[in-house]
Structure formats: structure tokens, C-alpha cells
Write a structure and sequence with these properties.
476 residues; alpha/beta; Nucleotidyltransferase, domain 5; 2 domains; 8-stranded mixed sheet; 7-stranded mixed sheet
Length: 476
């Protein structure tokens, strides 16, 4: 009996020792958890990115994801044997100091079968440059994590078939595209963790705006406040050292130019929602920014009983005539069960410029729409700065006013609002702004929201009581 108890104690001591060495088992456990890291791991998309500020926890989740896949112990995905993946850094030195260090931190020594070095000694891999790590898979067999650096050039990324590629920071476009080819035949994953310090690069177009509407693309912003292990005092100290543009990148992980976003208040995780059937009582109107060669943008707007605005459908097309646009607006309205007048005509707002006739046409765009059953109203308020201020008030989450929600099917409006930047002067860039114009036209027709009254302090209430008392005294 004594021998059995001693064996059990020995096993428990060994389990405790291993748990102390197992950083992977301790990752995101306990009372304090990094919720956005967990959301990243849970996502099933094959091209996932975390745009994070410095010290937001983005690199941590990238390293853990690579080890999860290689070890065959991913908690949210189907695991595979004999995995081969790459970790891609900007340079060999950055690889050693960041990604490689994180990977080694989450690999228990008894999981490592072999290490192949580019430089340095394999008995002390942390001080050298690793080429590959061969790892025991929990499913049997072995997996390989290879290390690459972008400064090697695109040619060094050719040939291999991969199960995953982790980009630690933003790669050059040619390296990214080459790695996309590496994961095709194994239906592998691309994931990246980066702080967008280079401005509006190809990843801004490819991932953030997702101009090609790739259904496998997913991204998340991760900022200092999302990291439960950063102290508020340190965050406050860091904030004081940065201007607003630098803060947007290094704290919030947002793509920025020196001019900045027009609507930084927009948060896709808050303002974009899944479509639902809108009650007939909420239906308001359609708003149109006309275009022939340029895109025509039309959106359907609804308002709930609390004054919240919903953008529920869109028509967005370029190079089409009025016949086509009018037919599409009527078709989408019919699908929505949208309200019409007694003759089946749809009401809409439209840019006042549509009411103008030209030498090339005997009729205005407004008249052409009217003849085709779209009752357009060109009397809209086009004041740019008042309109932008109104949109901002609907996007803000801090003023207690009604909000703006956009159905996820309105992909062009979402893309435009994410890429709407101030120009070098005092106006936004005249680029991809068609939905932004008609959004302003619509919101400017809404009643101006009064700011909720601030609760008076006890001192202020006492002051008003004294004033009223003085006013009640008879003269003399």
C-alpha cells in the first residue's frame, strides 16, 4: 500500500512539474482571459488576421495557433497528422527576437524531436536562427514548423505544400501571394498578426476592405484595452507620448494616413449586424446617389421606435442606365415588401444635382426616374460638414443618442465607410464616396437628436433653489 501511495505522489509531482513547463496548457486559462485571442482561435475562416496595437496580445495568439496546429491539439478545429507550416517574419533578427521566441515558449522540450539551425547551436536555439523545428504530434507522427524571413525574397517561398502560414507582421505583396499558392493543395490556412504602420497597403485593400468579397477572409482589431494583462497606468503613460495618428496604429491597430479616417467611430463588430425581417412600421425611404459611368448607390433605410436607423438593403452598380437602376430598385423593394403608393411607386431621396437638365438631355435624371415609378425627392441638405457631423452622432456609442446599424449584406457601404479618409485639405477624398453621400442625405432628413440632459450636481440644484426663493420675495 505504501509503495502505491508513493507512486501516485511521484506521478502527481511529475504532472505538476510538466504543467509548470507547459505554457500552452496555461494559455488563456483562469479568471482573466483575453477574449479576442479566443475569438481568433475559434474562427473557422481560412484567411484570418489580427490588426493589433503593440502589446495588445496579437503575436501571442499567432504563436499559439501555430503550435496548436502543429501539435494536433487545436481546441476548435479538426486536427491533422504530419502538419507542415511556416512562420514568416520580416527579417531573421526579428524572427529570433519575436516569433521564434514565442514558438519556443509554447513548445515543451519533450515535444521537440529535432531542431535544424540556420546559425547557432541547436542545444541553445533561442540565441541562434532556427530553420525548422520537428515536433511530436499528439495524433502520432511528427509535424514541422519552418521559419522564413521576407528579406530572403519571394523565390525562397516557392515549391512547398503547406498546412498553414503565420505572418508575424505585414509581408511584401509578392511574398503573401506566393504563400497563398503554398496552401492551396492542402486547403491550408493563412493567418497574420500585425500592427499596420505602413499606411494603406495591399492588405488594407485585400483583407480590411475585402474588395473581392472573399468569404474566407476574417479580421479583428485588438487594442491595449483588450489585453487584460496590461495595466491601465501603463496605457495612460503610453497614450501621452503619441499623436492621434500614431495612437490609431500603435494602440488600436487601425490603418491610418496622416489625414485620418472621417469616421473612426465606425466599429464593424458593433455597427454591422446580420439581416433580419424589418417590421413594415419601421420602413422609411430609399436614398440615391446617382451615377451612370460612376456607381449609382441606393440604400433602403428603416427606423425603429427608439430612433435607431437600419440600412437594410443596397443597390450599387456602375455603367448602367436609368432603366436598369429603376428596375433594380423596384425589384429589391418588392423582395423587401417595401411600402409604395397606390400606383405601386417607390419614394426615394436623390442628390439635388439629379434635378438639373443638360444640353445633352431634354430631361433631368430625376424626371427619368419619376417616369419609371421612382418618386425621387431632390430637396436634400448637401452641407458636407453638417452631414458628416450627423453621421458621427449616429455612430458614436458615448452620447446616448440613437445609433446606426448596417446589415451585413450592404457590402459596398461597409467598404466605403471603412475607407473614407480626409484629403489634404478640409474635405474627404473624392474616391469611393457614393454611399457616403446618400447616407448623409438621408440622415440629414432625420430630426436632429437632442443631447441627453446632464444630471445636475447637488451644488447646482441648491443654487437654483436659492434663485427661485429670491424671485418669490416681494419687491422692496
Amino acid at each position: 500500500m505504501y509503495e502505491i501511495i508513493e507512486k501516485i505522489r511521484a506521478i502527481e509531482r511529475e504532472q505538476k512539474r510538466r504543467k509548470g513547463d507547459d505554457a500552452l496548457a496555461a494559455y488563456n486559462t483562469g479568471k482573466v482571459r483575453h477574449k479576442k485571442q479566443i475569438a481568433f482561435h475559434k474562427c473557422k475562416k481560412r484567411n484570418r488576421w489580427v490588426f493589433g496595437g503593440n502589446r495588445s496580445g496579437k503575436t501571442e495568439c499567432g504563436a499559439v495557433e501555430a503550435v496548436y496546429i502543429a501539435r494536433g491539439v487545436h481546441p476548435y478545429r479538426k486536427n491533422r497528422k504530419n502538419v507542415f507550416g511556416w512562420v514568416v517574419s520580416l527579417t531573421s533578427q526579428v524572427q529570433r527576437d519575436v516569433a521564434q521566441k514565442k514558438i519556443l515558449h509554447y513548445l515543451r522540450p519533450d515535444w521537440i524531436v529535432d531542431i535544424v539551425m540556420q546559425s547557432g547551436r541547436k542545444d541553445n536555439p533561442a540565441t541562434g536562427i532556427i530553420d525548422q523545428i520537428v515536433i511530436k504530434s499528439a495524433l502520432g507522427g511528427t509535424s514541422v514548423i519552418g521559419f522564413k524571413s521576407c528579406d530572403q525574397g519571394r523565390e525562397k517561398f516557392q515549391g512547398s505544400s503547406l498546412d498553414f502560414v503565420w505572418f508575424d507582421e505585414e509581408p511584401p505583396k509578392d511574398v503573401y501571394e506566393e504563400c497563398l499558392m503554398r496552401v492551396v493543395d492542402r486547403k491550408g490556412d493563412i493567418f497574420g498578426t500585425m500592427t499596420p504602420l505602413k499606411g494603406l497597403t495591399f492588405l488594407y485593400e485585400e483583407i480590411y476592405l475585402n474588395r473581392k468579397n472573399n468569404p474566407e477572409i476574417w479580421y479583428e482589431f485588438m487594442e491595449w484595452a483588450d489585453n487584460p494583462y496590461l495595466s491601465k497606468k501603463e496605457i495612460s503613460l503610453l497614450e501621452r507620448t503619441m499623436d492621434e495618428t500614431t495612437l490609431q496604429s500603435r494602440r488600436y491597430g487601425r490603418f491610418c494616413t496622416r489625414e485620418g479616417l472621417v469616421y473612426p467611430e465606425f466599429d464593424e463588430s458593433v455597427h454591422v449586424i446580420p439581416p433580419f425581417t424589418v417590421p413594415a412600421e419601421w420602413q422609411d425611404t430609399v436614398s440615391i446617389d446617382p451615377g451612370l459611368h460612376n456607381p449609382l448607390s441606393a440604400h433602403w433605410y428603416a427606423v425603429d421606435f427608439d430612433g435607431n436607423v437600419y440600412v437594410v438593403a443596397e443597390h450599387y452598380a456602375a455603367g448602367k442606365d436609368v432603366d436598369y437602376h429603376a428596375a433594380e430598385i423596384k425589384r429589391i423593394s418588392a423582395l423587401l415588401g417595401w411600402k409604395t403608393d397606390a400606383k405601386g411607386r417607390v419614394s426615394a431621396l436623390i442628390d439635388s444635382a439629379a434635378g438639373q437638365r443638360t444640353l445633352a438631355s431634354a430631361k433631368s435624371v430625376s424626371e427619368l426616374f419619376y417616369e419609371r415609378g421612382i418618386l425621387v425627392n431632390p430637396r436634400v441638405d448637401k452641407d458636407l460638414f453638417s452631414g458628416i457631423a450627423r453621421v458621427k452622432s449616429y455612430l458614436s456609442r458615448k452620447n446616448g443618442l440613437p445609433d446606426l446599424y448596417i446589415f451585413s449584406c450592404c457590402t459596398n457601404m461597409i467598404r466605403e465607410i471603412k475607407g473614407y479618409f480626409w484629403g489634404k485639405g478640409d474635405s474627404p477624398e473624392k474616391r469611393d464616396d457614393h454611399a457616403m453621400d446618400e447616407l448623409r442625405y438621408y440622415l440629414m432628413t432625420r430630426p436632429k437628436n437632442a443631447v441627453p440632459p446632464q444630471e445636475e450636481s447637488e451644488i447646482a440644484r441648491d443654487k437654483m433653489r436659492r434663485i427661485r426663493k429670491l424671485r418669490r420675495r416681494p419687491n422692496g
